[in-house]
Design a protein that fits this description.
245 residues; alpha/beta; Alpha/beta knot; 2 domains; 10 strands; 38% helix; elongated
Length: 245
């Protein structure tokens, strides 16, 4: 296999509609969904070879039964260049809005956060190179193809990157369930960075020191904390509501 395998209707469709290199499309023999037929046409238009496979073979190939009858062999995920992302934001003429993920470990949380960022109109997502999940097939599946629609850049050091962003005029907001300041009390304006920490430990101390504001999401039930992707989604749309309205 030349590259990596992504699967699921939306991830495969978004990839074929983008610029990522694609080599082979694998379709379940019994798949008759009209969405699958549209994907086959997209593949044929791009000159991608189409292969029919039994469901059990697809499940083995994808190491998952959630492939929806379709998988695509693509080149490895291409991360955006951080400097290029910043230049594009500067040239857009509007306030920047960036999601920074500090050591997210679960690819499903990563995919969900990337999708929420794309839907909320964020300009890009930053993740660390080490001690964190990268954009895997599972993350792409959970993002439902959103990884093809929003730049995701990988940086060496999150704390240092936040320092750079602050020098460029960004205000950094971190999520922490124990913070007294509410996300709904924050006046998001200008260039905004939203930092979401890892599932277990939250934002790391050095990263927290770079946050201008640390805020929480008020909770009214008996559960003590929110899932990282849910908390991030709520905060992303609160930023979007105040920043883009």
């Amino acid at each position: 296999m030349k590259g990596e395998l992504i699967f699921g209707v939306n991830p495969v469709k978004e990839s074929l509609q983008g610029t990522r290199g694609a080599f082979n499309l694998y379709v379940q023999n019994s798949a008759t969904d009209h969405r699958v037929e549209k994907i086959i046409r997209l593949a044929e238009e791009r000159g991608v070879a189409v292969h029919r496979r039994d469901k059990v073979d697809l499940t083995k190939m994808c190491a998952s039964s959630h492939h929806q009858g379709i998988a695509l062999e693509v080149e490895p995920f291409r991360y955006a260049d951080f400097d290029g992302l910043m230049t594009a934001i500067d040239q857009s003429g509007k306030a920047g809005f960036i999601l920074v993920l500090d050591a997210i470990q679960d690819p499903h949380n990563l995919g969900a956060l990337i999708r929420s960022a794309a839907c909320a109109g964020a300009d890009g997502v930053l993740i660390p190179k080490d001690r964190a999940c990268g954009v895997t097939a599972a993350a792409e599946k959970t993002s439902a193809g959103a990884v093809e629609t929003i730049p995701v850049a990988m940086v060496t050091n999150i704390a240092q990157t936040l320092e750079v962003l602050k020098k460029r005029g960004y205000w950094v907001y971190g999520l922490d369930g124990a913070a007294r300041h509410s996300v709904y009390q924050s006046d998001f304006s200008g260039n905004v960075v939203l930092v979401v920490g890892s599932e277990g430990e939250g934002i790391r101390p050095l990263v927290r020191k770079q946050c201008d504001v640390v805020m929480s999401i008020p909770q009214y039930g008996g559960v003590s904390s929110l899932n990282a992707s849910v908390a991030g989604g709520i905060a992303l749309f609160e930023v979007a509501r105040k920043l883009r309205s």
